[in-house]
Design goal:
Elements: H1 3-10, H2 14-18, E1 21-26, E2 29-35, E3 41-42, E4 46-47, H3 49-65, E5 92-97
Antiparallel strand pairs: 1-2, 2-5, 3-4
Length: 99
């Protein structure tokens, strides 16, 4: 699957509505970008923790799916995030998943 195919696939779903865009989609590395819009922010105009978690979960899920055998599926059972910087409204944030 190419980044363009994945971006088309998420259109109409939550990740697409958030504005997530895959830039690299390989079995050993998945990278995506997201512009921090007002709708994804909390006061004072920084990216909401839930939006960060959803962004990270989606990128990690695609990294998993690219490595599944035919007929296998996946779901998130547990997730933990350490926050070290705020994404501010108007900035582009990047997520990278490496299995």
């Amino acid at each position: 699957m190419t980044p363009d195919e994945a971006n088309a696939r998420i259109t109409g779903f939550f990740a697409g509505a958030m504005g997530l865009r895959f830039t690299i989609l390989e079995p050993k590395r998945v990278v995506a970008e997201l512009v921090v819009t007002r709708e994804l922010c909390t006061i004072p105009n920084v990216m909401h923790g839930g939006a960060i978690m959803a962004f990270a979960d989606t990128v990690g899920a695609y990294g998993t799916v690219l490595n599944l055998a035919d007929g296998q599926g996946t779901t998130t059972l547990e997730s933990k995030t350490n926050f070290f910087a705020a994404g501010r409204e108007g900035e582009t944030v990047t997520a990278e998943a490496t299995p």
